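User: I'll paste a sequence; please echo it back and then give the predicted structure.

Assistant: Echoing your sequence first, then the prediction.
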Amino acid sequence: MGHSNLPPSKRNPRQWKLLDFISALFFALVLLFFLLVFTRLGDSMAASGRQSLLVSTSDPKQRHRLVALLELGRHHQPIEACPADSVDHMPCEDPRRNSQLSREMNFYRERQCPLPDEMPLCLIPPPLGYKIPVQWPESLHKIWHSNMPHNKIADRKGHQGWMKEQGPYFIFPGGGTMFPDGAAPYIEKLGQYIPITGGTIRTALDMGCGVASFGGSLLSEGILTLSFAPRDSHKAQIQFALERGVPAFVLMLGTRRLPFPAFAFDFIHCSRCLIPFTAYNATYFFEVDRLLRTGGYLVISGPPVQWPKQDKEWADLQAVARALCYELIAVDGNTVIWKKPDSCLPNQNEFGIELCDESNDPSYAWFFKLKKCVTKASSVNGEYAIGTIPKWPDRLITPPSRAMILKNGIDLFEADTRRWARRVAYYKNTLNVKLGTPALRNVMDMNAFFGGFAAALKSDPVWVMNVVPARKPLTLDVIYDRGLIGVYHDWCEPFSTYPRTYDLIHVSGIESLIKVPGSSKSRCNLVDLMVEIDRMLRPEGTVVIRDSPEVIEKVARVAHVVRWAATVNNEEPKSHGRENILVATKTFWQLTSSSS
């Protein structure tokens, strides 16, 4: 028989000791669990030891736990610095990662992003000797050598007027391979054939731009040029362009559509960009045609235009242009100028040109494979041809007909314009954001919608990269119609720019960038997004983030561990929303000898 009916004095004392031990152990574990989760003991234990746990990506579960701790504010030490050799790191344009990929149609030079769990969770440091950049407009002509000590372009292209080293600076005489005497006389020559002045041309795309002297020179004519080039053997041409304060973007024309809407640009330019426009059944020419506005101008300077030993390539290029009914304006030396027609039924020729299917949305351009077909003008509703839209600057505030893609789009556009005029005034006058001062030149709006924030800065010496999230309504065409520039992007991936390229980064509704549309479920996390913002932002640069008070509370916690000095403010008066505004400054820190 058992002992259950024995009086307490008769029970086995050894059994009591074992039960007591098990009970004590259980309660101790419960107590330890509560201490780790709900007190700072857990925080300090998580932060103790090697901080490099934040860099490690060998264990995704460990990374997820660290991200959760950071978002909850239970990890109080700053995220550590990345290694010294990562000062120019672009996660989606990493030559070491991409060199193993296919060369077909330059696939290996397009965006190829690692999975989130494969990316180190660390802050990109500035290079040794980094200085706060030279301010605009002086920066157009000179920058600090120590901020990007890459002499390759200066050594190879200095005789063509690209750039030269001079004392502590790189200087930019304004030249290029096809205009070694400077972009100004080259632009003057183009002005004989196309309306450079007067506001007819506002948005331009410069393909294979070098250090963007062409786009920089057009700014004085009121033309806003987005210059792009891949990360290539010249290493840092886009980085130089952005350091100068010229709009630029790392991009490759390869297997996918460029991340712009249909009929966005008034003027597309290639100066020795070496894009094989007639290769792959003229697919690259078709992509340029998709992007060029009806009545817009295409200028190709350099090979194959009347170039030695490229007679066939030049003949093919002319044949494609004729097949698309492009009007030949001029052939001046090695430069050809065409004008896009109002309408065209492609002529039959050896390229087998066909019109794109009606189901093909020509403005959808986020990771969309290039089509070997021509976009019909009738496939896009609205007025967007040159001559039918107002000239600059009137087009900035005139509601574009393409705004009607959304219900009550014109009313939304006008309300959005008024709202952002009021908000930007509040940023300047009450929150003391340095908009309108020489301290800010390169600006990004991460959730641009109709571009109202950028439009409110029209009198400031800034340019704005308007980013329309790829999973939101595709309103980037409206932004281009009003004479502004931007790109599509998915903020669960890194952006295609070098570190330290923006003076101010603005985002309204930051949580919406990481959520599944129409759901509370997250596709990625706030920590990775803010680490990416930090990568793009210059030391002593400014971040302005607005969202609900609950979201801004989380943002403020993460701001601390990414080493920003942040304040939380109420929204502007007469606002009918429920938002707080975080204004932060990225602190200027550098690697110590022990961390490098």
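The longest helix spans residues 13-38. Residues 125 and 590 are 6 Å apart (CA to CA).
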